[in-house]
């Protein structure tokens, strides 16, 4: 059971003729675009291009997250596996890898992106995570009814106007005691994250 804790081809031309051959001037090779050359990545929108920082709690203090967690968070803008966009909101879970050993700590990062304009975003934290499931079973507190699930109950920090992205949710941690496939998902009201599928090996 878990515990919540991105050839150049060179043509050589040889001149041939009757009689005494004259030396032909060297032919300059024209570079040919490589079929394997990677296309230039599209520029990111400004709200995704700048990383606002990631923070965790250490006792009663809020401190910068470990470098390994920051690296995972910074992968979000160009991540392939993101949650679906619904009404301008997207929830995404991130982890450092997809395969862990039995008993190894799994650290799950949470990202809330608001791609539409004009909504309030509360980017400071870490804020508590509600509505996280493992293999379909709730492992955190449930989402409160009749409240905005993305607005903290207590908050004293910056408020952004979307489009914006919020990385500062608590990093949930798990250790699995048996091998197998585990699926973690974050569900907040009608919004669902990607399914973070992990392989736990001996």
What does the model show?
- 21% of the residues are buried.
- A hairpin with a 2-residue loop joins strand 1 and strand 2.
- By secondary structure, the protein is mainly β.
- The strands form 4 sheets. Strands 4, 7, 8, 12, 13 and 14 form a 6-stranded mixed β-sheet that branches. Strands 3, 5, 10 and 11 form a 4-stranded antiparallel β-sheet that branches.
- The chain has a single domain, classed as Sandwich (Immunoglobulin-like).
- The protein has 2 helices and 14 strands; from the N terminus they run H-E-E-H-E-E-E-E-E-E-E-E-E-E-E-E.
- It is globular, with a radius of gyration of 26 Å.
Q: How many angstroms does the end-to-end distance come to?
A: 15 Å
The count of strands amounts to 14
CATH homologous superfamily (4th level) name: Macroglobulin (MG2) domain
Give the CATH topology. Immunoglobulin-like
* Unreliable segments of 5+ consecutive residues: 5-24, 29-38
Amount of helix: under 10%
| Helix-and-strand structural type | mainly beta
Number of helices: 2
* Proportion of residues in β-strands: 25-35%
Overall shape: it is globular
Series of secondary-structure elements, N-terminal to C-terminal: HEEHEEEEEEEEEEEE
What key attributes describe this structure?
single chain; 202 residues; mainly beta; Immunoglobulin-like; 6-stranded mixed beta sheet; 4-stranded antiparallel beta sheet; 6% helix; globular
